Amino acid sequence: MALVGVIFALLLQGLRTLAGATAEANFLLHQLNPVLVVLFWLLFTRKGTLSWRDPLLWALYPLVYLAYALARGAAEGKYAYPFIDVSANGWVGAMSNAVVIALGFVAAAEALVLVDRVLARR
């Protein structure tokens, strides 16, 4: 969830002008919720329980979602995110973007495991 906030801040923020309830929902999902999840993890979860392979398991859901988003985009001609838009980026560009994001996801998740282990020692 924290990475949702990072991806939103780096790649998606400002792409669309939102107002009213849509803007509020966007704020809650992409800005407030990621901060609250990190705070919850820091304050309320037991540390030292994460393993180095956990990030690979965590990456399964985003990879399945990527396949779904690409299939739906191909069927509808409209992609959920500009960085996986095959019509704008081509398959090589869209897949390159997906690989970079996936590697960033796994690297950030491994950093989280490291932080978990460091905090467990305290």
Care to describe what's here?
There is one protein chain. This protein is mostly helical and 122 residues long. Helices cover 77% and strands 0% of the residues. It has 5 helices and no strands. It has helices spanning 2-12, 20-44, 54-58, 60-76, 86-121.
What's the number of domains? 2
- The quaternary state of the protein chains shown equals single chain
How many individual β-strands?
0
Q: Please state the overall shape, judged from the principal axes of the Cα atoms.
A: globular
Estimated helix fraction: over 70%
Hey, roughly how much beta strand do the residues contain? under 5%
Largest sheet: none
Structural class: mainly alpha
Rg computed from alpha carbons, rounded to a whole number of angstroms:
17 Å
So how many helices? 5
Distance between the termini: 25 Å
Uncertain runs with pLDDT below 50, 5 residues or more?
none
Mean pLDDT, to the nearest integer, reads 92
